[in-house]
């Protein structure tokens, strides 16, 4: 049974960066304004993430790493909404099957923090057959999640990973994208033992300022902005809105940079990507590519963020119409500024 769980967990958690993505989303769901990440060996040895969010109640700790444990049920009225927001209660459970997981957490009302370690979906055993209860400890409001020895029990998965520096750059990439999408949250990422962070963003910034800071001045000089939503005359279709920051004709990169958030989750849609890239046909010279940040908010019931845990690719209702409207808006802004 534990082997099956482990294999299933490996489908959710592919590499340090995918574990990190889940953890960052949890921090943001918890209302954090500060997220600090510490990494050793590209996250394979250690991946630690500290937030200042709402914390986890002591009473919830024993079941925290059980599959389908999610505190996010009450906020949503029906199950389809939960699963489409990515709230499946699978992240911590999965991690506990493929790594050593430790949680230190404190809510505002608790007088001290609590520490708990997990293994295979349960509180870890101190001695065979004896699980360890959460222990009181010192700590600030918020949660610190520590993942150690990722894939220690999955040698093939471990050997499929790239070098520590490659895994680390994937971690930085995920954090950078979430920092751009959450300019009011401060993100810090550093290697264990190093004093200087490799990523440090201030809170109370704005998305364009965050883009400038993280991707450089040359991008931000050329940024355009567009907002679009479904109009009332779209009839009975679901309401949606999109906000985009994208480069103009002066910005020409060798590769497309495309950041897509749907309902505040970083996702991929090759269809959307291709369509938006197409908008630049005839605007950019051949072999040149834009930077595009797009945040789409859509009825959660109409988007399938998790078609399959191994795929980040999303599908949503009225996709064609929505993609077309967004492309139109971008094209209009692009051409208006060029004439
Ligand atoms: P999900 O996010 O789908 O609910 P997870 O496995 O990612 O499932 O997390 C399980 C639960 O653990 C969450 O629903 C939440 O209650 C709690 N949790 C996890 N991380 C944090 C955090 N950083 N701050 C507060 N609560 C958290
Ligand atoms: Mg989660």
Automatic annotation (TrEMBL):
Keywords from the named record: DNA damage, DNA repair, Nucleus
GO CC terms in record: MutLalpha complex
Cellular compartment(s): Nucleus
An MF annotation (GO) of this entry: ATP-dependent DNA damage sensor activity
Keyword Nucleus: yes
Source organism superkingdom: Eukaryota
Gene Ontology terms: biological process: meiosis I cell cycle process; mismatch repair
Family note: Belongs to the DNA mismatch repair MutL/HexB family.
Protein name: DNA mismatch repair protein MutL
The species this protein was found in: Guyanagaster necrorhizus
Span within the parent record: 30 to 368 of 729
């Amino acid at each position: 049974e534990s082997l099956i769980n482990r294999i299933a967990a490996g489908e959710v958690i592919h590499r340090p960066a995918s574990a990190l993505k889940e953890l960052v989303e949890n921090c943001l769901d918890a209302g954090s304004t500060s997220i600090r990440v510490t990494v050793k060996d590209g996250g394979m040895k250690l991946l630690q993430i500290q937030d200042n969010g709402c914390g986890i109640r002591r009473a919830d700790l024993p079941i925290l790493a059980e599959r389908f444990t999610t505190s996010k049920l009450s906020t949503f009225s029906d199950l389809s909404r939960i699963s489409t927001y990515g709230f499946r209660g699978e992240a911590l459970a999965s991690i506990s099957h493929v790594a050593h997981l430790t949680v230190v957490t404190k809510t505002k009302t608790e007088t001290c923090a609590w520490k708990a370690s997990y293994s295979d979906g349960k509180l870890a055993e101190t001695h065979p057959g004896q699980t360890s209860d959460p222990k009181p400890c010192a700590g600030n409001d918020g949660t610190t999640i520590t993942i150690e020895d990722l894939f220690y029990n999955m040698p093939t998965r471990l050997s499929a990973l790239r070098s520590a520096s490659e895994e680390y750059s994937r971690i930085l990439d995920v954090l950078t994208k979430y920092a751009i999408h959450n300019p009011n949250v401060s993100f810090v990422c550093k290697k264990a033992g190093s004093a200087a962070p490799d990523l440090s963003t201030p809170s109370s910034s704005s998305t364009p300022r965050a883009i400038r800071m993280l991707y450089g001045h040359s991008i931000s000089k050329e940024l355009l902005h567009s907002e679009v939503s479904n109009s009332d005359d779209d009839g009975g279709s679901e309401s949606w809105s999109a906000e985009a920051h994208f480069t103009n004709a002066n910005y020409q990169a060798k590769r497309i940079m495309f950041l897509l958030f749907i309902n505040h989750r970083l996702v991929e849609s090759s269809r959307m990507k291709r369509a938006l890239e197409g908008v630049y046909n005839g605007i950019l010279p051949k072999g040149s590519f834009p930077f595009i940040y797009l945040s789409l908010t859509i009825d959660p019931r109409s988007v399938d963020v998790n078609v399959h845990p191994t795929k980040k690719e999303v599908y949503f209702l009225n996709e064609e119409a929505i993609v077309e409207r967004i492309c139109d808006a971008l094209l209009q802004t692009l051409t208006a500024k060029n004439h």
